[in-house]
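Translate structure to sequence.
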């Protein structure tokens, strides 16, 4: 993605304090100078601003390049020049997401300009790792530095590539399935005792959601693979694997370390009595939540905290049954819900203690390869009046945020094509027998394509289970089970904000939420591998 044959130089320095950079008197070379050893640098406070060099605290993932060379100066907290040669220092350069090659060898030299020992490494950018079917618009995308305008331009180009695709969903599934099978043969993993004569053979089968005839033609080589332009730019290396440790770092551990201990009792013997600590926690809880942490506490937070209303969208009463609905969703979730073709709904009975249960609206995002929660609701009734009111307030909120009402494709020719959910037996307690239950016209329409009025191509695109929303339940349990109502809402906001941050990072910057590839071909290949075990 960056211009080829442009240089970036990294100088890892030791014995250099930040305050020394403020009054550092650096030589000003002319514009015609190509000496990367002596870049034009100006020092201001703790940040060095310049035309051809930058001081940074760590290696950037997308560093600037220049035909005349561009220097990055990275401060290392070490007074031993020999530590500049350690593997840890070189591993830091692996964070760079561009493909690169080292020019010459890395050397530990003394810099008269920085007045310290430095490890100099010259790198040459050779582009970026991309999909072999990357569209020409992105393949020829030249740049020397990354900014918001560049990300916006890449995002627009990706959107135009997505809009130009002509294959149906079932044809893409067929290509992915055959590709995954051929990949296993190429890796000699398809057969237990693989030989040179092993090859892909098409047999009878009707995989759901796959264009069967098109897949047969691909397997028998009577049809060519119609690969569409791709918009994926791969990461050069995985992100650091220590982010989980950072997310789980409690303030208490830092507090104990500041006093050279690991537990509170090691700081002072009086902390061994936990009853006093429990009393202090209870006191703070009462001060923070004067109305408690159940429905009254939620209502108090909703009426007194404006930030709380950014996620808790409303507390509604249900006519006829004295039910209560608490709708929770971020604006970004609501906007995404308004744009999807289908979603899944399910209820969790373990999230909160008491009479309230959690209803989750979620979807599996095919492009991102992850489950995204679209909205949540906490209800204290399970009947048709509550469910009707729930969908009414949710769709009203969508129209309020987006300015457009929810539409169903079968009525308006656009909008939602399907809503996937499990049937609640309490709505129809008579249908308890298995065969009679499956013969019910509503249940049969959800299980058999021939019994449904849904268009066949839409049926193939819709998920045939509620696995996505079940996974959302499991993610919610990471914040605890049988929580108070207010605590469950607080934990849900953290999870939903994380979901949308990951979604935005993928849409804007193509940053994936995990290290493992989640595209459809990889999932098919992994599924085949698991079946052979």
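Result:
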């Amino acid at each position: 993605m960056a211009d080829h044959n442009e240089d970036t130089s990294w100088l890892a320095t030791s014995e250099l304090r930040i305050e020394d950079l403020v009054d550092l008197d650096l030589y000003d070379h002319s514009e015609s100078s190509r000496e990367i050893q002596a870049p034009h640098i100006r020092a201001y406070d703790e940040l060095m601003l310049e035309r051809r060099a930058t001081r940074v605290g760590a290696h950037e993932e997308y560093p600037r390049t220049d035909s005349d060379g561009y220097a990055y100066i990275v401060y290392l907290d070490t007074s031993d020049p020999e530590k500049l040669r350690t593997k840890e220092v070189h591993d830091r350069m692996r964070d760079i997401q561009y493909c690169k090659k080292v020019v010459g060898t890395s050397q530990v030299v003394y810099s008269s300009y920085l007045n310290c020992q430095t490890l100099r490494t010259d790198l040459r950018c050779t582009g970026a790792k991309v999909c072999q079917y990357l569209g020409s618009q992105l393949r020829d995308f030249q740049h020397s530095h990354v900014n918001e305008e560049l990300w916006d331009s890449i995002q627009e180009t990706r959107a135009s590539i997505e809009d130009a695709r002509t294959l149906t969903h079932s044809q893409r599934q067929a290509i992915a399935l055959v590709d995954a099978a051929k990949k296993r043969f190429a890796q000699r993993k398809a057969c237990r005792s693989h030989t040179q004569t092993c090859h892909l053979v098409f047999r009878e089968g009707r995989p759901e959601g796959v264009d069967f005839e098109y897949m047969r033609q691909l397997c028998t080589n009577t049809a060519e693979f119609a690969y569409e332009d791709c918009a994926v730019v791969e990461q050069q290396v995985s992100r650091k694997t220590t982010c989980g440790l950072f997310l789980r770092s409690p303030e208490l551990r830092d507090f104990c370390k500041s006093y050279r201990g690991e537990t509170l009792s090691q700081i002072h013997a009086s902390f061994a009595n936990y009853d006093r600590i429990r009393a202090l926690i209870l006191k703070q809880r009462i001060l923070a939540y004067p109305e408690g942490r159940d429905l009254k506490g939620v209502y108090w937070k909703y009426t007194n905290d404006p930030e709380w209303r950014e996620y808790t969208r409303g507390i509604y009463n249900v006519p006829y049954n004295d039910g209560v609905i608490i709708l929770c969703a971020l604006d970004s979730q609501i906007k995404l819900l308004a744009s999807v073709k289908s979603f899944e709904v399910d209820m969790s009975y373990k999230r909160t203690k008491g009479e309230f249960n959690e209803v989750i609206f979620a979807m599996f995002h095919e492009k991102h390869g992850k489950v995204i929660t679209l909205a949540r609701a906490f209800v204290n009734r399970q009947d048709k009046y509550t469910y009707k009111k729930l969908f009414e307030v949710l769709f009203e909120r969508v129209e309020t945020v987006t300015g457009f009402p929810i539409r169903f494709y079968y009525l308006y020719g656009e909008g939602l094509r399907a809503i996937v959910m499990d049937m609640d037996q309490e709505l129809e307690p008579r249908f308890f027998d298995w065969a009679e239950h499956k013969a019910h016209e509503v249940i049969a329409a959800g299980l058999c394509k021939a019994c449904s009025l849904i268009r066949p191509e839409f049926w193939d695109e819709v998920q045939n289970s509620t696995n996505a929303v079940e996974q959302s339940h499991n993610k919610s349990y990471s914040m605890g089970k049988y929580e108070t109502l207010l605590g469950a809402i607080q934990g849900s906001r953290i999870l939903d904000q994380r979901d949308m941050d990951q979604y935005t990072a993928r849409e804007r910057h193509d940053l994936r939420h995990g290290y493992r590839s989640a595209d459809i071909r990889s999932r098919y290949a992994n599924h085949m591998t698991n079946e052979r075990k």
